[in-house]
Amino acid sequence: xxxxxxxxxxxxxxxxxxxxxxxxxxxxxxxxxxxxxxxxxxxxxxxxxxxxxxxxxxxxxxxxxxxxxxxxxxxxxxxxxxxxxxxxxxxxxxxxxxxxxxxxxxxxxxxxxxxxxxxxxxxxxxxxxxxxxxxxxxxxxxxxxxxxxxxxxxxxxxxxxxxxxxxxxxxxxxxxxxxxxxxxxxxxxxxxxxxxxxxxxxxxxxxxxxxxxxxxxxxxxxxxxxxxxxxxxxxxxxxxxxxxxxxxxxxxxxxxxxxxxxxxxxxxxxxxxxxxxxxxxxxxxxxxxxxxxxxxxxxxxxxxxxxxxxxxxxxxxxxxxxxxxxxxxxxxxxxxxxxxxxxxxxxxxxxxxxxxxxxxxxxxxxxxxxxxxxxxxxxxxxxxxxxxxxxxxxxxxxxxxxxxxxxxxxxxxxxxxxxxxxxxxxxxxxxxxxxxxxxxxxxxxxxxxxxxxxxxxxxxxxxxxxxxxxxxxxxxxxxxxxxxxxxxxxxxxxxxxxxxxxxxxxxxxxxxxxxxxxxxxxxxxxxxxxxxxxxxxxxxxxxxxxxxxxxxxxxxxxxxxxxxxxxxxxxxxxxxxxxxxxxxxxxxxxxxxxxxxxxxxxxxxxxxxxxxxxxxxxxxxxxxxxxxxxxxxxxxxxxxxxxxxxxxxxxxxxxxxxxxxxxxxxxxxxxxxxxxxxxxxxxxxxxxxxxxxxxxxxxxxxxxxxxxxxxxxxxxxxxxxxxxxxxxxxxxxxxxx
Length: 737
Known about the structure:
Elements: H1 2-23, H2 39-52, H3 60-69, H4 75-85, H5 93-103, H6 107-154, H7 162-189, H8 206-211, H9 216-235, E1 241-243, E2 250-252, H10 257-261, H11 266-270, E3 274-284, H12 288-296, H13 298-304, E4 309-319, E5 330-337, E6 347-359, E7 362-369, E8 379-381, E9 384-392, E10 395-406, H14 419-423, H15 426-445, H16 454-476, E11 484-487, E12 496-501, E13 511-521, H17 525-533, E14 548-558, E15 565-573, E16 582-589, E17 595-602, H18 604-611, E18 629-635, E19 654-664, H19 674-703, H20 707-723
Antiparallel strand pairs: 1-2, 2-3, 3-10, 4-5, 5-6, 6-7, 7-9, 8-10, 9-10, 11-12, 12-13, 13-19, 14-15, 15-16, 16-17, 17-18, 18-19
Helix pairs in contact: 1-2, 5-6, 7-9, 12-13, 15-16
């Protein structure tokens, strides 16, 4: 009886405690008081109080532990650490002490922060690598399955299965095309004139080709022959192609295999045309049907490659699309391609585009020009295009071949070594496709920015693409003659100034002024890109944020890797309220075929307007008028040509193009005021000097060696590796940070 009574008293104390906590948040004792409680009940009550944090005196150690667990870095501390990590992920003891003094953290805190950050980055890289390996595994499994099926059906000649017959028919058609191509090779090697149906050969006269451009049968035959040639080039793994060391693309072997197959190309070289032929492969996060839709529609084609294509139009459609899609469609297109540098002129090319479905999930899109490039254009496409193979429902493998005959006499000598492979090569096409598809996927599926709706992210993504296209178009002065070059060739000593009339923006300004210049830096492109993106050093060179604190507000879209993002930055001057803040929309991407960082200032009201859906925009108000500013980077191939085995962009120099656009007012007669051009040139000269000074000083301060000495050390290490010094008894080359 006594034990039961004690047990009941303990239960009553527990119930009273729970009621007190559930009621007003304070624990109340029973009416009997604490003296009436038994020892087990009192111990239970004390344990519950300790667990609930209701003992202010005895739980001091618990509160201290909780405070230590909930400690977070301030925004300033995170900004300093993140900025330094983007440049150097393994600081030495001196750099750790400097960071500890700057941030107010202990040495162990700085040490463990960098360890955790490196682990986080490695985990993200492992996830990306695992995905790529899984996709490659799917490709190998599919190839293995096809080989097994081909092996089974090849020996079963009496099988009457319709699916097997269809596969045999497709295989026979491919073999017949390959046999026809081989017969043409034999005819060329024997000196016999080739067949007339291969109209894409260079020795076909322009009069013959254009006189037959209304012949549907001739156009269809031309497209099929080009398709067979493209398939052979895409599937060939010997002789015709050889890989470029340190790069992820291949160059056509013009000196031996291809010249023997197509001796007619020599006539092009005789009249000043050069051959550029590259092949590259990439994984695209998009189903193959959507990729075909972007390639075949002129508007989508231009928006899918914002920094590559300045204009695309369909001149004529020979075979119209059907309910099945673009299978069998043949159309004549004119495309203007650009590279964001005033030293590289734009290319305009007219060609046939033919889409054909080879198998389920395997599509080929072929480009081939009708003219010979000597009279009607300076760029002629040999059989080029894309081979698209479906891997998963939301991803595909794209093999791009870009093979052109071009007159590049207008290209500056600074960019001449980069023309065959990087500027207009296949690597740039597939890299842009992979970037755009990954961003589109991230906009629709990633929820890392819950404060921005999906419609708002789509609007900002489109605005970022338009910003990049406007930046590239203003530098190259393309767009159907809308830009007028006032002065300058586009070098550091001769800055280019161009303008175009506009009806957008404020009524006091009726034109947009574009200023650009290209120069060479002794820093590798990887280091240059990291230093420009670093928000800690942004206020040292950027005129827009001079004297301000720049922080990343939100990430709108993320592409391939951490260097490919569309972000919104928050720029605020010290001592000002939030209502005076300025927002910056930034679009940046990194690839060996061309990196960029383009941004524009936009106020908070316009940013909120773009976050709204198009149907919610205020009536009578269009999109905001943005004036892009930014950089375009390209690795100096000539300086890095001896760095075999090292990724392109990690060594050598960088070809950097700087550009900005500002609104101006024209004089009478659509002439520009001379003082406007002089002020723009002076501003660009000061900006170039400021950027170069900041990059050189920050590089030397972080890596502890000047760019010139670092480049010499890299060359010494490369020579030692070639001579076999590394790992031998000879002294190794100096250590490079």
